[in-house]
Amino acid sequence: MGCDDKNDSVREEQQTLIIASVLPAQKESLVLVGGSSGEGVWNPLYICKNEDSADWRIWHTDFRIRGFDEIYEEGYEYRIRIRIRYWQADPAIADHNPRNCDLVELISKEKKDSQHIPSEFLAD
Q1: How far apart are CA 56 and CA 7, in angstroms?
Q2: Which of 37, 45, 103, 106 stands 20 to 30 A from 82 (CA)?
Q3: Is 19 within 8 Å of 9 (Cβ atoms)?
Q4: Angle at CA 7, nearest 5°, toward 9 and 66?
Q5: 44 within domain boundaries
Q6: What CA–CA distance (Å, rounded) separates 90 from 110?
Q7: What digits encode the pLDDT tens for the residues 87-107?
Q8: DSSP strand pairing (32-33 vs 97-111)
Q9: Rounded Cα gap, residues 7 and 38, in angstroms
Q10: Is residue 15 included in any domain, yes or no?
């Protein structure tokens, strides 16, 4: 079964994220095996949070941030604006899948230790 782009519904949204100054541990508990297709492994890539949230979360490699991956340096906390494009073959279906994620703007880069990161996200 293939996808015909003419029939796909595409939706874009922008988000402002804070990317932690440390990378997540490569722990089995942080790796998602499977996904909707039942295949593949998603390794943790960044620790991040939305600008209006206090809760850190893991950003996985299935959702690489094009334009940011190349400039990230550990030891700096970043505030970035990203654009996420979603697609769904049937707009009536509530579930949507990301198509891609791009850096729109590097708002700030500050040398600091990110605070209040859950210990299970970090190396032992």
Answers
A1: 36
A2: 37
A3: no
A4: 50
A5: yes
A6: 42
A7: 765 555 555 555 688 999 999
A8: unpaired
A9: 25
A10: yes
Residue segments in the chain with a per-residue pLDDT below the cut of 70: 1-8, 27-44, 61-62, 88-99, 124
Kindly state whether residue 122 falls inside one of the protein's structural domains. no
Q: Total structural domains in the chain?
A: 1
Angle, CA of 45, 12 and 34, to the nearest 5° = 40
Among 121, 124, 109, CA closest to 22: 121
- Tell me the pairing of strands 9-19 and 44-50: antiparallel
Rounded distance between C-alpha atoms, residue 16 and residue 12, angstroms: 14
Total Cβ atoms within 10 A of residue 72: 15
pTM, full prediction: 0.75
- Residues facing 11 on adjacent strands: 86
Asked whether residue 121 is domain-assigned, the answer is no
Radius of gyration, CA atoms only, the chain: 16
In this prediction, residue 61 carries a pLDDT of: 62
What sign results for the dihedral spanned by CA atoms 103, 106, 107, 111? positive
Q: Supply 100's token pair.
A: 């891609």
